[in-house]
Amino acid sequence: MYFDGATTRATIGDLGDLPEFTVMFWVYSDAVEAWRVVLDANIDDFNAGPSFSESANAGGILEIDYANNGALLGDLPVHAWHHAAVTRSASGMQLYFDGKPTFMITDKGATRFSNVVVGDGNENGQTPTHYQGLVDELRIYRRAVSASDVATVYDAQK
To answer: What are phi and psi of 91, to 5 degrees?
Structure first.
């Protein structure tokens, strides 16, 4: 799905409480300007679900913020496809970028997935931050998939 950086967004809605989950998707950025939200799993409560965003820092990076824990997923140059994933299990959250594990967050935080939005973010009443680029093959599971599952999805489409 293409997001124009101005008004387009896709609303998934309320998925409820997910004690274990996986979120994965492909992302292709057309422009990296300031900070823009790619996917926000709880637009109404900043600390409740993961938020993936791109940032103009260092020429473009993909970040995740979850329960006040921020972590870099990887470099996000414009005009290139990248795969992002996060799994949450009893041991914490494992982050993946292009099929490889990058960072583990042991503070699991809240698990509420309400008002899930792709292509826009407006956390804590801030100005909306519309994403400019493509998001493809968004998957949300009610379980933590294995590292080999993440790698298989990445390898099948790279």
So the answer is: -90, -10
CATH 2.60.120.200 is held by the domain 2-157: yes
Q: Which residues contact 152 (CB under 8 A, 6 or more apart)?
A: none
The structural domains of the chain, with segments of one domain joined by +, span 2-157
> Model-level pTM?
0.80
Tell me the CA distances in angstroms from 35 to 5, 121, 146, 152, one per residue in order. Answer: 11, 10, 30, 30
Cβ–Cβ contacts within 10 Å for residue 156, how many? 8
For 156, the enclosing helix (H) or strand (E) is: helix 147-157
Question: Contact, 143 vs 13, CB < 8 A?
Answer: no
Question: What phi and psi, each to the nearest 5 degrees, are found at residue 30?
Answer: -85, -30
CA gap 94, 128 in Å, rounded: 28
Q: How far is CA 37 from CA 92, 123, 145, in A?
A: 23, 10, 24
Asked if residue 30 lies in contact with residue 79, where contact means CB atoms within 8 angstroms, the answer is: yes
Segment 25-37 shows an average pLDDT of 77
Q: Is 60 exceeded by the pLDDT of residue 22?
A: yes
| Band of pLDDT at residue 43, cut at 50, 70 and 90 | very low
Give the residue carrying structure tokens 């260092």.
Answer: 58
